[in-house]
Amino acid sequence: MINQLEKLLKQKDINPTAMRLLVLDYFLKQETAISLSDLETDFDYSDRTTLFRTLKTFEKKGLLHSIKDGNITVYALCTDNCSEEFHADSHIHFCCSSCKKVFCLSKVKAPDVEIPSNFKLEKLDIIAHGLCADCIK
Ligand SMILES: [Zn+2]
Ligand SMILES: [Zn+2]
Ligand SMILES: [Zn+2]
């Protein structure tokens, strides 16, 4: 298992430290996007700054993408297509208004939008709001 994790990190050109392996392992087990506070709760033996830096490194290297929902930023794993400074995550995110979880709808592609040519588009965030499958029940 550790070998598999190390391989994933190396693929994205990330030095596999113990902390990074743990955080990656954690993300692989999640079904929803995770905020820094969620991570902190589950990693109570490590400090916030280290966790935050780990998230930022992963995001920069194309391992995680971030979704900003209001004041909260959540993170989810990227596909293999993402690399350093280039994120290919063009899917829509779904925020459940009941449980507040954020889901990657990786099969739902964001529509093409036309941005005026004198603007430079870096990232298009589309967040759908509603009830998730669990909360509808
Ligand atoms: Zn990405
Ligand atoms: Zn829900
Ligand atoms: Zn996503």
TrEMBL record:
Domain of life: Bacteria
GO biological process: negative regulation of DNA-templated transcription; regulation of secondary metabolite biosynthetic process
TM segment ranges: none
InterPro entries: FUR, WH-like_DNA-bd_sf, WH_DNA-bd_sf
UniProt-annotated binding residues for Zn(2+): C96, C99, C132, C135
Keywords noted in UniProt: Metal-binding, Zinc
Named cofactor requirement(s): Zn(2+)
Pfam families (UniProt xref): FUR
Co-factor binding details: Binds 1 zinc ion per subunit.
One MF term in the entry's GO annotations: DNA-binding transcription factor activity
PANTHER family reported in the protein's UniProt record: HYDROGEN PEROXIDE SENSITIVE REPRESSOR (PTHR33202:SF22), ZINC UPTAKE REGULATION PROTEIN (PTHR33202)
This protein's name: Transcriptional repressor
